[in-house]
Amino acid sequence: MGVKEGLLALLAVGPSHGYQLKLDLEAATADGNVVNVGQVYTTLQRLERDDLVTIQRTDDEGRVIYELTDTGREALGEWMRRPADLAAAGRDEISMKVLLALATGSADTSEVIATQRGAAMGLLQDYTRLRAEMDPEDLAWQLRLERMVLAVEAELRWLDRVEDRIGGTKSKTPAPGQTEAAKARSGR
Amino acid sequence: MTATGRRAALRVAWRTSRHNLKRTLFVIMLIAVPVAVAVVAAGFFRAGQTTPEESVVGFMGAADVAVQSDGLPVTTAWLDARLAGLDPDAETTTFRSVNLSFGTGVAGPVMDLDLRSPLVEGMWNLIDGAVPKSIDEVVLSDGLARFYGAEVGDSVHLDPRDPTAKAYRVVGVAAHGLYWNYPAAFITSHSLSEIDVPVGERQVFTLIAASGDGVGLAASLQEAWDQGRFERWPTGAVVPKPEILNELVGDDYYVLLDADQVEELVGLAQIRTTPDEVWLRLSEMLADVESVPTLPWLAAESRSAYLFTSGGGALETPFALATLVSAVLLAEVAFIAGASFAAGVRRRLREIGLIGCNGATESHIRWSLVGEGLAAGLIGGLVGVGLGAILVVAGRPIIQQFVGLRITGVLFTPADAVGPMVMAVLAAAVAAWLPARTAARVQITTALQGRMPASAPRRWTVPVGLGMAGLGTLLLLVGLATESTLGASAAALGVVLMIGGAALLAGPLIALTGALANRSPSTLRLVLRDSSRHRTRAAAAVAATLVIMVLPAAGLTADATSRARTESRGLRAPSTHLILLGSHAGPFGQAQLQDEDVALVRRQLPDAAYARFNQIDVPAFFEAQLDACQVEAPDVDPGECPLVAEGGASYTVAHANPDLVAVFDDGRIDQGLDQYGVVVLGVDDRPTEVMIDGIVHDARELPIPAIEYFMPRVLVNDDIAATLSGPVQQRALFVAPEPPTTEQMQPLWYGNLDMSTGWEDTSEAAALAMALGGTLLVVLIVVALVTALSAAESGHDIQAMVAVGAPNSIRRRFFALQAGYHTLIAAVLAIPLGVLMMKALASTEVYRYAAPFGVVDGTQIAIPWLGLGLLLAIVPLTMMVLTAVAVRSAPMTPPQRAG
Amino acid sequence: MSEPALEMRQVGKTHGQGAQRVDALVAVDLTVAPGELVAVTGRSGSGKTTLLNMAGALDEPTTGTITVDGQRLGEMSRSELARLRRLSVGYVFQQFNLLPALTAVENVTLPLELDGMDLTEARRLGEVALAEVGLEGMADRFPDQMSGGEQQRVAIARGLVGPRMLLLADEPTGALDEATSDNILRIIRQRCDAGAAALLVTHEPAYAAWADRVVRLRDGRVESISERAPVESLVETGP
Q1: Mean pLDDT computed over every residue of chain B
Q2: Which residues in chain C (34-63) have CB-CB distances under 8 A to chain A?
Q3: Is B679 helix (H, G, I), strand (E, B) or coil?
């Protein structure tokens, strides 16, 4: 998922060759690690095989210029219209770790949470610092960073929620009925 | 704290005042009004004051010596001759003066004064027209011209009651140097002798500009006159008058005595212990004399002597008056302003926390808040002074009319403003002080949350409050016992302390009643809690009301006490009664009732029932007096009993003829006379005893109103009358259906009659109504101010209540209950305080006497339970109702964040 | 590293006694150096604000020592503490930070004036501080003539005016929209990069992330401290 649709989307703008497509893909997604050149060429060949793209010509420097076919245009439209699979988000590593620790008791859940939170916070700090220092004109970068910030924030919120749910069992236990008052008095 | 730090704090204060303009203006106006009142009071006082210099001009114009004498030719001739001898070069002007009634209530002199004489200058000044040149012309004083509505060229009768009197043409208007409303008329110089005025009823003034020493001239004239006065006495007078009688017997009586009588009086004067003994003997000697002769008289006074006796020292009085007036009014204002500051501080608590956060010390915060008070005091004072000055200057004609003096100088001097200004600043600073102190002590973190901590009442408030009230009472007692300015100040301070102590107790009392909140319905609970939490504001509001309510409590007590004392002397004197004794009969004689006297009164009071009766002069003592004497002095004859003697209450007896009984129109009198032979006009329908001329009679007492003096309080039937052997006087009693009017009475007063009348008196209900009405009015003002203040502050809570489903009328109910609650607490504190103050006042009145219907003890007060109870109930209730009517219901908007 | 702007050693705070005893803070160690922005996060009631108040000498710790600007708070009198608040630490709150009756620059110079500084000098410093938060030319506006973000910037300027070097911010963006909040934190960050020290209390991770260090409090204890990775490492992750 990703490279195929990315290439189709770029070719929808106009015919292009393999290396240019790699560069454009990186720029559009604000991601330097998306794909390597080899992968681009392999994917292009597969797309030609499926009749989604066609070779338009070979340019002066001997580079093959690909062009989108009508079938390819149709496939791209269908992908764009299909919602992304949100359900996959619940199966990441962090949630697996925390949930397993909670279920099996194989590790101190609070510690796992704290560690994860520390890591997430560190990442958030990094993103924030990056955001502060980057070129405000670079919209793609901005948006991608914000996507990442929000993701980490969501993770932190989830960790908070987990912590609330498992309660203060691992820390101090104020006498029943005092909790609210104590909190009201001790904090803001 | 550095000066700059303080300046920064003051700057915050100043800016905050300007920022919260509405509240600042409120406090400023609150302060300005009493200051203006004080300045106007000082102006009034100044207008009513004359300096000795002004007075002397008003009395003798530009002259050095003024000689007043009777109009007898012999005197005038003596003066001319003597003056020619003493100071031949002296300038003189002489004029005569006759007092005349120019119309109802307006009487003044007619003078034949030469208005052009330089000696008259300043005393009378011609301000319009010309001096009279013929006997038909007259100059009116401006006061009289206003009274007649006359102008130059008009024609007036100087005696409007006499239509046949001669008409004069007004040729000019003159103004007196001192008096604005002085009614006077001037006719041509030296023409008064030509008007038919009995000698002796006119005065002659001679104004003299001495060529040398005026003091010496006046002294020489007076001395010469006094020494030679025997020569001018009527024949038969014993001359010379013995030195020892000079002080004891006036010349006009002395000339009536023969040689034996003079000798007796001289003997008596030598052995006398009091001057009264000589006087009593003299009145016995002259009992038959019908009129006293008019002796020639003359009084010379020099300008310097007049100035000396007029004295000075009135200059600091306006200052003291303005200070005192503003102090009294501002003391009240300080409470209301205090509530306003307390509310303001609460509302701005977060700001205060913010300042604290930025490193303001407690003293910075206090300074910034007290500074706000100072600013309000200063501006309020200035506005008040300005307002007062404008009122005094613009109101000059009104003040002049009111005071009756011609205002020549300024009515407002900056010095008058100093006292009120100081008081204004002081009051505002005091009002701001307590909230400022409280706010400065709030922890910064608490303040930042914008919530004033509900502090427990300080432990010292109750003992200090009680102590202050006690000390105040003590000071009041001591002050009243000390007859001096210092004593008066101590008494005043005592009253202030008593009120201050009670005000201090308001806080704890609010806290105490606040404890009832848990068991109250929700709105009341909100009110109790709110007042408890905002104790500074609530206590100030209560104190402001308290000060006002002390007055009716004290007033009602005084009224009840005076009623109780009157009651023990008999019922109040009805204003419809009149007792006619008869015409004057010489200086010492008994008035004789003549037919024409009765006819005169009947003419004036045609609707009055009347009866002539015989009064028998024998001492009568009533049962209460006999009882009291029996207890206090069992061995002493009731007539000599000190309790009775001190009150001087011995009542003479009237022979009850059918006419007299009919006047009272009360069948019980006849019954009583039949049954006992004696009826007493007293306070109750009951059997009683009266000791008449040493013999005790059973009698019937009836509750019939009676005049205290000359009233037939004891009526006896023919049988008993026949046994009495005192001197008999004829009297007449008139009972009119309505109290006589002034017009009806005036001819009687002017006539040569001896009378005794009752008086119009406010009923107990009327007194109570007045006390309640006045209190309601002033308390309402205070409550309105306080409600406006707390509306700004408690609005948030109320909107929150509405938001959770309370009816919109909760706002109305909240403020109504709050007004009632504060007023009730104020009443609870004020009423005992007012009674206590009256008790303290009475405790110095150490006298006791047996009145006809009870013993009067000066130290006892009567407590008007009903009146005080009504005060306690009606004032808070009315405040509640009026507030409920005046306050709007809560609007349906969601609560917004306070601040 | 030079002397820390704020140093807390084993700071504890206890309210009440016996059964009512509540530990608001337990043995907290915290240091903020000049140039550092430290964030304190945690759920409601975790003791964030208590910590901040003690750093600003508005509250006293039950145990431990607090040193601000080299001065031990426990040993200082009330007036010395007030002086410390005037000259060393500045506060920024969620909202209502300014005295409505004073202009922007007067609000900023309030602590200096309270300390007795000459008016002209104070005004000069105030204008400098306003310029540093990007509010040139707004010195004479009143708070009600400014937006929420601008008011907050005035508060930051006041927090760091003149000799003040330690900014204590308690949810400074709580009442602002996201873009404005970002801007406020950017300014705080800039001021720290220019040498100031700041302690920021917030429950928003996104805002805490502006800090060099994030201290998470849980029931009065420091649960975790997250140090910022050097920026360079992020930049190098590119191809």
Answers
A1: 82
A2: 43-50
A3: strand
Q: In angstroms, how far is the first alpha carbon of chain C from the final one? A: 34
Amino acid B339 reads A
Shortest Cα–Cα distance, B833 to chain C (Å): 43
Residue keyed to tokens 């302690």: C199
* B649 neighbors B849 (Cβ within 8 angstroms): yes
Contacts of C224 in chain A (CB under 8 A): 114, 117-118, 121
Determine contact: C191 vs chain A, CB below 8 A: no
CB contact under 8 A, C206 and A149: yes
Backbone φ and ψ of C170, nearest 5°: -110, 105
**Phi/psi at B558 (nearest 5 deg)?**
-60, -40
Q: Give the nearest chain B residue to C103 (CA atoms).
A: B15
Q: Which amino acid is at B770?
A: M
Secondary structure element (H or E) that encloses residue A44, with its range: helix A37-49
The single residue listed with the structure tokens 């903020």 is C32
Residues of A with CB under 8 A from a CB of C: 32-33, 114, 117-118, 120-122, 124-130, 132-133, 149, 152-153, 156-157, 160, 164, 168, 171-172, 174-175, 178, 182-188
With contacts defined as CB-CB under 8 Å, which chain C residues touch B20? 101
Residues with Cβ within 8 Å of residue B805, at least 6 apart in sequence: none
Which residues in chain C touch residue B364, judged by CB atoms under 8 angstroms apart? 82, 114
**Angle subtended at Cα B552 by Cα B551 and Cα B557, rounded to the nearest 5 degrees:** 100
The span from the CA of B106 to the CA of B145, in Å, is 12
Rounded CA gap, B410 and B392, in Å? 9
Residue B152 exposure: Cα atoms within 13 Å on the Cβ side: 12
CB B620 within 8 A of CB B692: yes
Q: Which of B177, B224, B154, B201 is nearest to B61 (CA)?
A: B177
Q: Which residue has the higher pLDDT, B888 or C239?
A: B888
Q: Where are the beta strands (DSSP E) in B783-846?
A: none
Buried/exposed code over B701-712 (b: 16+ C-beta within 10 A; e: otherwise): bbebbbbbebbb
Residue type at position B165: A
The per-residue pLDDT of chain C, averaged, comes to: 85
- Which residue stretches of B691-762 are H helix? 718-723, 742-750
CA angle B651, B657, B658 (to 5 degrees): 130
User: In terms of Cα–Cα distance, which of B617, B551, B556 is closest to B581?
Assistant: B617
Tell me the pairing of strands B65-70 and B298-302. antiparallel
- Which residues make Cβ contacts (< 8 Å) with residue A180, sequence separation at least 6? none
User: Considering only alpha carbons, which residue of chain C is nearest residue B17?
Assistant: C101
Q: Say whether pLDDT at B560 is over 70.
A: yes
Radius of gyration of chain C (CA): 18
- Rounded-to-integer distance, Cα B646 and Cα B666, Å: 33
> Residue B456 has what pLDDT?
61
Backbone dihedral angles phi then psi of residue B622, each to the nearest 5 degrees: -95, 170
Task: Give strand ranges (E) for A72-174.
Answer: none
pTM of the model: 0.68
Can you state the angle between helices B317-347 and B349-357, rounded to 10 degrees? 80
Q: Residue B516: pLDDT above 50?
A: yes
Q: How many helices (H) and strands (E) does chain C have?
A: 8, 10
Instruction: Give the span between the Cα atoms of B107 and B134, in whole angstroms.
Output: 24
Residues facing B757 on adjacent strands: B578
Distance of CA B880 to the CA centre of its chain: 34
pLDDT one-digit tens code per residue, B74-115: 888 888 888 888 888 888 888 888 877 777 667 788 888 888
Q: How many CB atoms lie within 10 A of CB C214?
A: 27
Tell me the pLDDT of chain A averaged across its residues. 75
For C107-140, give the DSSP string.
HHHHHHHHTT--HHHHHHHHHHHHHHTT-TT-TT
Nearest Cα residue in chain C from A110: C223
